[in-house]
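User: quick one, fold this
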Amino acid sequence: MAAKNGLLLLSAIAAVTLSSLSLAAAATRRSQEPREAVRAGYYLAADAHLRPLAALDASLYTHLYYYAVAVHPARRTLLLPPDPAAASLLGDFSRAVKAKNAAVKTVLSIGGGGAGGGAAAAAGSGSVSDPAFAAMAADPASRAAFIGAAVKVARENGFDGLDVAWRFPASAVEMAEFGFLVAEWRAAVPRGFLLTATVYFSNHVFDAPFAGVDYPSEAVARSLDWVNVMAFGLRPPGAANATAFDAPLYDRASHYSASYGVVSWLDAGVPASKVVMGIPLYGRSWFLRNKANNGVGAPVVAAGPKQRGSNATGAMSYAEVQWLAATATRGSRAVITAYDNASVASYVSVGDVWVAFDGVAVVAEKLAFAARCGLLGYFLWPVNYDDANLTVSRRASQVWTQTKISPEFKNVTGGARQTQAPVQRPPALQSPAPTTAPMSSSSSFSRLSWRMLDVRLHLGALLLLILVCYQI
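Assistant:
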């Protein structure tokens, strides 16, 4: 009888063990399933007049972001558009986009200070902060209420996800609260609901008032589907009186480059499959001091002319850059367009106006870099700044699709970093030694190791029970 009971017990334990092993294997398979590549675009609601939703080709994107709903500066609640036309745009966005492409996912971006001042102002830099967002995130009660309200608004208006667009946590305390926020947000959203974040560099946020301002990479990797890295708005300090690229892929003299921004997240331990690289559809402009001196680093006297469309001084939409060059050519004015191979950046000079922008050649090189890094995809900032033919959006979609299926870019990791080490970071921007070890790029191996340990423990317990039952 004892032997029979032992065998029954053994059978039960074996069944439980095999079930556990099956669940562990299923979890491993799910974690290894490839995520759909991201071809995203941000649609600036404040500049909807430049491209109405009816003129947007949704087939060029897998994800479209409505940017943005701000945080109320006093009440720490959602600041929904007070204007009826803007409120109608928010309500119609998902329906209108999905009517053209049922497969596209729409995401409601929260924060960004309402994106006033156009795309270039919204891009900002590490020194830009959002006091209203910081105040909301600092209080657990207001965080919970805000998260609940945001999820409710997104679902009621047909969005498939939410984007945390806090530009930018400006201290170690605010970064910690960012981590709490995304973790609590993940716990609150329904299963299958997307959660992303619009972020800057993962560490050493430039021009921050305090040193050591690093994103909580572990919370980011654990809580978010991916991060959208704003790899633009990278004008170095001290360049206020000279022309400079706004989003170079490489910069041998500093860390102000798109490659550094992307690789900073990979070095922080966030998987490449959770990193999406930003490409600007705006150009940064200046008035030259001497139109005969029109190269990179040439002296300037002021920000470039204010544009009617983008309504910004010192910035132009891609469409406006193309219009400037075209009208100058027709008027027999000299137009100089240059592509810088070392930086992977371009500019156009027309008379005394100089504009740094990403042309299609630059975009193609950036997407090749993203593919070499194994990134999840790219996003365009913003899609309503493209020209009438959606030249950049179309070219980006074509290049990304061709690059991702090309054998040349499979399992290739070279070329992800700058070709030459930049100068040493100023001491004020160096982080203190971390108190805990950061999540390394081997985190996926660590998770697999834990699964293997779990399997071995189950097998060990099973063998032990066999011995015990045998004695019985």
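User: anything notable?
Assistant: Confidence is low (pLDDT under 50) at residues 2-33, 409-470.
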